[in-house]
Amino acid sequence: MNLADTTTHNPFISLIYETAIESLGHEYYDVVNAAEFPQHILRWRNDDLLPTLGLTPQQVTNEHFVRAFGKFEQRQPLLALRYHGYQFGEYNPMLGDGRGFLYGQVRGLDNKLYDFGTKGSGKTPYSRGGDGMLTLKGGVREVLAAEMLNCMRVNTSRCLSMVETGMSLWRGDEPSPTRSCVIIRMSQSHIRFGTFERLNYLKRSDLTRRLLDHVIATYYSHLQGEEDKYTFFYAELSKRVGKLAAQWMAAGFCHAVLNTDNMSITGESFDYGPYAFIPNYDPHFTAAYFDYNGRYCYINQPRICRFNLELLQKALKDVIPQTDMEKGIKNFDQEYKLEYQNLMLKKLGIERINTFKGEELLQSTLSFLKYYPVSYHGFFADLASTFSSKWQNNEENILKGSEIKNCFGTTELFINWSRYYHQILTDLSPNQLENVAKVLSENNPRTVILRPVIESVWKSIIEEDNWQPFYDLLHSISELTAEK
Ligand SMILES: Nc1ncnc2c1ncn2[C@@H]1O[C@H](COP(=O)(O)OP(=O)(O)OP(=O)(O)O)[C@@H](O)[C@H]1O
Ligand SMILES: [Mg+2]
């Protein structure tokens, strides 16, 4: 096939791109060019996402991926979106897409509008001193985080592709020179809290209202036509963010950089930089080495999400009545509490129980996990792999033979926990008891990408250019997802 044929028939380039953001007007973005890279090696293609785009893996070659998402052929305009944000508590008006752009917007077969956004695609007017690039390790980590979180049913963006781009980058936090890549992230929207903060900073309530109308029409369409749609929007956003915070916490995920420019207006999780999955239940676990005060530590995440919603009130005050937003944010508290308990009880194999009993079990579980050096994910995975209906007969049977019971079985906290757990199991009917095993296995993946797991995958890449462990890991995550 000659060059013209390949590009003309590239299924990605032939997708129908909608112009929702572009049509909003030039005040929201800058038209930019993509960098030209010395090399283009496709390292990851997310075939799981293709059906949503109406494509099959057979229709799309690696070359199609590279030409569309590494060389950015035949796609214009590329839009660097403008935004500001509160970073570690300080307002920063110097932000914006500094190493990415909105490549395009495509409606999925599910009728949702998806954004394809780049990361590592070159300099823009918002790059400041930066090189506009993404390190290969950064790309590998972002791909893995999104797939793992998706497997754990967290509402997350995903990576559609990762192309290695052959540049040598210098970074303070990676042995340098280090390799480079560009990723395409498929998300619900890249409109951030910070997008609105910028408009408020510029005192452009007309632009705020226009953007809000677009957000509601596109991502909260059931509110269209409501007289109080702005008020309802804020209340629902608060609820969605509450749910997301609960999902992170139950997944044992520490995002690490919860600045308002990393908070999506749809309530979706994205931007996986220095994140980590917690090794054990340490409330003060902090993932970013530069987060000196532990501002975004694991246990602070719900509080910070709520605080970010409060900050957003300032940006929306010209359009939404303040008193309505003060009421609306209560949705966050309710949703967080409910969803966190619900998700944690599922991790214990329990669905639909009395809230009070559920809370007692949850608190005793956390007390045990907090006090002893038990792996957070290991504890739940052990429950899932060793569960037996015999646990209902006698609390002594619970986790019998496991390392956890062998080490901590005689401690007061373990005995307390197993007593609560046993009490709940005894109340279950035989059918419900059977369901426990299923719920346990659905909610506790055997593989979780703790830092050493990621580092070992990265070691193979960097030392031997061996990508197999990376693909094997992604394959096992994808198999876990399919089992559910
Ligand atoms: N290497 C770089 N070159 C230019 N700008 C950068 C670079 N790294 C980060 N930035 C910019 O710094 C700001 C904060 O970066 P942050 O890491 O939160 O975002 P990001 O990871 O680049 O993008 P996203 O939030 O879309 O995942 C953003 O404005 C970002 O574009
Ligand atoms: Mg960011």
Automatic annotation (TrEMBL):
Pfam family, one: SelO
Catalytic reactions on record: L-seryl-[protein] + ATP = 3-O-(5'-adenylyl)-L-seryl-[protein] + diphosphate; L-threonyl-[protein] + ATP = 3-O-(5'-adenylyl)-L-threonyl-[protein] + diphosphate; L-tyrosyl-[protein] + ATP = O-(5'-adenylyl)-L-tyrosyl-[protein] + diphosphate; L-tyrosyl-[protein] + UTP = O-(5'-uridylyl)-L-tyrosyl-[protein] + diphosphate
Named cofactor requirement(s): Mg(2+); Mn(2+)
InterPro entries, A to Z: SelO
EC number: 2.7.7.-, 2.7.7.108
Entry keyword set: ATP-binding, Magnesium, Manganese, Metal-binding, Nucleotide-binding, Nucleotidyltransferase, Transferase
Annotated active site: D261
Binding site for Mg(2+): N262, D271
Sequence positions that bind ATP: G96, G98, R99, K119, D131, G132, R185, R192, D271
UniProt enzyme class: transferase
One MF term in the entry's GO annotations: manganese ion binding
Top-level taxon of origin: Bacteria
Known role: Nucleotidyltransferase involved in the post-translational modification of proteins. It can catalyze the addition of adenosine monophosphate (AMP) or uridine monophosphate (UMP) to a protein, resulting in modifications known as AMPylation and UMPylation.
NCBIfam families cross-referenced by the UniProt entry: PRK00029.1
Family as reported in the entry's similarity comment: Belongs to the SELO family.
Protein name: Protein nucleotidyltransferase YdiU
Species this chain originates from: Richelia intracellularis HH01
